[in-house]
Amino acid sequence: MIMKNCFLRCFAVAAIVFVGSFEVADAATADRIVAVVGNEMILQSEVDEQAMVTVLQYPEAKNDPSLKAGILETLVSRKIVLTKARLDSIVVNESEIEKSADERMMFLRSKFKSIEEMEATFSKSYAVIEKEIKDDIRDQQMINNLRRTKMSGVTVTFDEVEDFYNTNRDRLPLVPETVSVSQIVMYPKVAGEARKNALAAIEDIQNQLKAGGDFAQLARQYSQDPGSAHLGGDLGYSRRGDFVKNFEEVAFGLEEGEISGIVESRFGYHIIQLLDKETDAVHTRHILIVFDRSTLDAPAAKAGLEEIRKDIESGKADFAEMARKYSDDPVSAKYGGVIRNTETGETMFVITALRDQLKTVVKSLNNIGDMSKVIRVEPESGAPFYAIFLLNDKKPAHRLNLSSDYARLEKLAIDEKQNRMFQEWINGLQKEIYVKISDI
Q1: Which residues pair with 261 in a beta bridge?
Q2: 258 with 388, same domain?
Q3: Of 439, 435, 417, 414, which is closest to residue 82 (Cα–Cα)?
Q4: With 80 as the cut, is the pLDDT of residue 406 above it?
Q5: What is the CA angle 93-94-95, rounded to 5?
Q6: Count of domains forming the chain
């Protein structure tokens, strides 16, 4: 059955994500109470709406006779969890809800010629549709937060991972070819005249600060950082590795309220003020005068990187050590040049997902430990730079297996165990919360 055990999948389906063309049943004839959970009701129209969404996303569900019954079961489970989440005062992030709702409304509006057409299709006003979307996102976030709280300590043993693998071996996904790559990045430096002009400008600002000038006001007036100038230079809280090396060293060395001297980075000259400090994060603001980048010395950057490459190739230097010392990319430099997914921390990347230029470089590196020539990189946005790349690891396309993919299998096993335990917990909640279900 298509809907069997779809609890978690259906939770991820938005209540209002209708696209395409379909008929909406008249509310007066469609709506009747089909279930009661605690003090809340589930209406026939809710089940019908979810059925339409499911068919749009999974066309094969259209002929499933148990479709609506499965959806009702899912909605009941959802209401049970929401009732418990509210009793436990689970907190949600309203700013995230607003952002997600805006994105979903923009997507929804793009499917109709006008707001009037959208309202006619749903038989609801724009304001009601928007409210229902926000309510759905809020409910989903509440459920996710409760699940995270209840299941955070769930782990699996090696035997459990092995059992999961043996049970699901034939259904495990095919892993495409992946690689791990390190880099040393070098941006061209600006010529002396541009540096001299920028220094004169930042020194003038420094003198105004020493004379009692207000930092935020001067940042708004003079800073050439478009992202922070209008905020008085405020950069918010940042952790180690978020800033370029010189900026970070100074920022983390300041005391609260202290203003730095002039700090040079590849972007220009900064003056930094520390507003607050936590264990591994700082709240700073800065004033930036940028270098005139029309005077970049590209040949010098390339020559410098060629020299580094020569020392690594001859064995005089270690790639990771050189990356930490010289790379202009602070994130990968912190890990000895290893490129990581900033969200997951993963170091293995699917080759086909890499940008074309890096994909070409990686394909030219045949063996682990091979190093590329100095490459001029032309990013989609931002200034060009030079880089050398090192192939750390390469795994051919294969089906998940215990020997090479234990970490992934462990995560899948944990997910399955969490899902099972969460469903068991929900079943237990039915003893605490009144539930009545009618035939559908």
Answers
A1: none
A2: no
A3: 435
A4: yes
A5: 95
A6: 3
